[in-house]
Amino acid sequence: MTTILVTGGTGTLGRLVTERLRADGHEVRVLSRHSRPHGVDLREGGPGLDAAVAGVDTVVHCASTPRGGDEQAAANLIAAARRSGVRHLLYISIVGVDRVPFGYYRAKLAVEEQVARSGLGWTVLRATQFHDLLVQVFQALAKVPVMVLPAGVSDQPVEVAEVADRLAELAAGAPAGRVDDLAGPEVRTLESLARAFLEASGRRCAVLNVPLWGAAYRSFRAGGHLAPERAVGKGTFEAYLATRIRRR
After folding, report:
1. Which of 71, 195, 207, 244 is 20–30 Å from 60 (CA)?
2. pTM for this model (two decimals)
3. NAD(P)-binding domain location, by residue (predicted)?
4. What is the pLDDT of residues 178-197, one digit of tens each?
């Protein structure tokens, strides 16, 4: 079996990828800012990053933040991977990063391009948004009596465990370039998803759809972040809510 480094290995996705890979018999190193022995801030790099990558066959790059710095983090990781002779760099991205002019999406697309130009064997998988993210958003919006949603926007959430399974499969294989997207089983309006969340959590909250403005909103409204032709995920939003949300 191979030695695999998972960046962001303590996060929502990275933790599950780590579990899958270890269950399959791989030696797995976890890199994050607070993990030990590989507590590294990828945006800063340094000797700790070189030590984490040394002797690694494959890197699964899950570390990411909408607060900025992904491109610098990728540059540092790629440089360390080159020095160490990493065979395979696998990156998880988001469906629609090339169609939606949203700041975080642009950064993810830039990292995809860095990976493709890295000179390493590489694979990029794009997935739609996780159920977990929608729930975090709805929980925040439901703190006031009226939940305000962007009018006309739909989503296609996917179960994070299914994305982890696919990444573990890809990590064990050869570099494959840009592979088929992984999207959830249903395209749903944000309002229908929000009402499902409110029902499952027992919250009482009005829902108001409000038109917004800007190129990013128009792209989301047009479905640039969706992949209905790749609706291969199995887990529905209601199934997620049934196991993860406790009624108030």
Report:
1. 244
2. 0.95
3. 8-132
4. 999 999 999 999 999 999 99
